[in-house]
Design brief:
The chain has 574 residues and is α/β, with parallel strands linked by helices. The chain contains 19 helices and 10 strands. Helix 10 packs parallel to helix 11, helix 11 packs across helix 12 and helix 18 packs antiparallel against helix 19. The protein starts with a helix and ends with a helix.
């Protein structure tokens, strides 16, 4: 071997381990999220203790406290330069909060506080309360003086100095008091003073206001040597474009910040494609999933989707090399949690994908199910739980439109608004999907007998799968513990009842829309039949579950019926 060959071999040995590395070799951090109430509500202390044990069991790297995680800190900080804003918190609450944060810090777990922003002190941005921000500092409405941006910078800095346990603050921008789907920074004076043409912001675009807000928060975080992250959450493409313009500008400036990408735009919807902001930015980021199920059962019934999680993880990391963390919501409200419920497979799978995104998903299912159900029952339980993904997708949606109310049987007003909202959203996200968009438009604006048949067919298919699962579980009764058999049986029976109620519920809704816009005597008869069927079901559900069951409340069913009957009667009297 001559020296040139030897030199080449040595050079390759040095280079190949780096240049040959692929996403298949990379491991990711694991983060879990829960609502602030879990940490603060004394009735949930048992759940909080369980969560801490699970965090250690899964070797979690980061916790994300949402539902007011950052807002609670604002009660206890003094903001330099803004002496009119007074502390309002109480010492007992503060001690409890700091004690909870300390546990995570003692165990080396990163803490991110999450919530909607840009918030301001006071009841809301229209408040006449003398303590609301723009009443205390009216000059902040005029952006030329920079006072509003200074407030956000100083508040961020004060948060981290007062709560040194915290590593990052995380914001989402839509559905917030000052920045929502309809009003864009309405507290700011759009009519500038007479010198407006001299101001530095005279040519600001809408996105520029977002940019300057985030830049101010970044300055405050950087001064404290902490992190700011932005949740790339948007209901509509126009929101996404504004946010993307701002984020690209921050990247151009080389600002130091993080991103948290939901795996798809807006709230979880399996019918949506990938998050476009994730595809077009390269800032260090997390990829976020909802494992507990805000919109599909809240872990009160199972919705298990490891296959979809893996597909979206693989797609994300192949298109964005800056993703470093895989994250999942584990709690919603009260004790609605995936821990010790069947939806825990969602987190278990994500934890396995964090170590190997390309692991055989069947191996993940098998390892989890054998440990939980035993070797004999595991294969059947895997089939049963896999079906819950398809059942949920058929019952909670129509072509990606939400047709229930945060997992429960929808009220008429909520359903009407949500169908319109998510119907428009789906069409806007997928303008080229002309076949499904035609069905969505018909469902939203002009339902027909064919649309009704399609919606019913989806639910009949879901019902058949649910009944197959009930039979499958019965076949392995002797292989399951008494407690496990009873748990899965009860949840599947609730799921079956939910699907049964959803059949006349969605038909009644669509026939109500027809009667409202294009009434016929034949449709009115069919609508009346649906409503009578729902009344009978409400009585059955009341006997089984009581009037207060979250998923299938008899009161909710009867209210839905009453609302339709009253509106039909009103329209007929005109």
């Amino acid at each position: 071997m001559n020296y040139r060959t030897l030199f080449t071999i040595l050079l390759l040995a040095l280079v190949l381990p780096v240049t040959g590395q692929t996403e298949k070799d990379k491991q990711y951090n694991l983060a879990v999220g829960f609502r602030l109430g879990l940490l603060m509500d004394p009735t949930l202390e048992g759940n909080f203790e369980m969560t801490k044990k699970k965090i250690l069991e899964y070797d979690v790297d980061e916790v994300r406290i949402y539902g007011g995680g950052n807002a609670i800190t604002y009660k206890y900080i003094d903001i330099k330069g803004f002496p009119e804003i007074k502390q309002q918190g109480n010492p007992e609450e503060l001690d409890k909060y700091k004690k909870g944060l300390k546990w995570f810090k003692d165990h080396g777990i990163r803490i991110t506080l999450s919530g909607g922003e840009p918030s301001l002190p006071g009841m809301d941005y229209y408040s006449k309360d003398k303590n609301s921000f723009f009443n205390l500092y009216p000059e902040a409405k005029y952006l030329e003086n920079g006072l509003l941006w200074k407030f956000y910078e100083e508040r961020t800095y004060a948060l981290f100095k007062t709560f040194p346990q915290v590593d990052a603050t995380d914001y989402f921008l839509w559905e917030t008091p000052i920045l929502d789907d309809l009003n864009y920074f309405p507290g700011i004076k759009w009519q500038k003073p007479i010198t407006w043409h001299k101001g530095e912001n005279q040519y600001y675009s809408l996105a520029d206001y977002l940019t300057e807000f985030m830049a101010a928060v970044i300055r405050g975080a950087n001064r404290a040597k902490k992190d700011f992250s932005i949740l790339t959450f948007s209901h509509y493409p126009y929101q996404e474009k504004l946010l993307l313009e701002s984020l690209k500008e921050l990247e151009r400036r080389n600002e130091s910040f993080l991103m948290v990408h939901k795996s798809q735009p807006g709230d979880w919807d399996p019918y949506k494609g990938p998050n476009n902001i994730m595809m077009q930015t390269q800032t260090k980021a997390s990829l976020l999933f909802d494992g507990v199920g805000e919109y599909w059962g809240r872990s009160l019934v199972p919705y298990c989707f490891p296959e979809e999680i893996q597909t979206r993880v693989q797609h994300a990391i192949e298109h964005n090399k800056s993703i470093q963390t895989l994250a999942m919501r584990t709690y919603w409200e009260d004790d609605q949690t995936l821990f010790n419920n069947y939806n825990e497979i969602n987190l278990y799978a994500l934890a396995r994908f964090a170590k190997d995104p390309y692991i055989d998903v069947e191996e993940v299912w098998t390892d989890w199910a054998k440990g939980k159900f035993g070797e004999v029952a595991a294969p059947t339980m895997i089939k049963v739980l896999k079906r819950t993904n398809d059942i949920g997708n058929l019952v909670y949606y129509f072509k990606g439109i939400w047709v229930q109310e945060h997992s429960k049987i929808a009220s008429l007003d909520y359903m009407t608004g949500q169908v319109l909202h998510t119907g428009k959203s789906m069409i806007n996200w997928n303008p080229d999907d002309i076949k499904n968009n035609a069905l969505i438009e018909a469902f939203v604006y002009n339902p027909t007998e064919e649309i009704i048949k399609m919606a019913i067919a989806d639910r009949k298919q879901a019902l058949a799968m649910c009944q197959k699962s009930i039979a499958d579980v019965a076949s392995i009764k002797k292989s399951l513990s008494k407690e496990e058999y009873q748990k899965i049986k009860v949840e599947l029976l609730i799921m079956e009842d939910f699907v049964k109620v959803s059949l006349p519920h969605i038909e009644a809704y669509l026939r109500y829309i027809i009667n409202r816009d294009h009434p016929t005597s034949q449709n009115l008869v069919s609508l009346s039949n649906c409503l009578e069927e729902l009344k009978g079901m409400a009585l059955q559900m009341d006997k089984k579950y009581g009037a207060e069951n979250y998923l299938i409340s008899s009161d909710t069913i009867l209210k839905f019926v009453t609302d339709i009957e009253q509106r039909v009667a009103t329209s007929q009297s005109k």
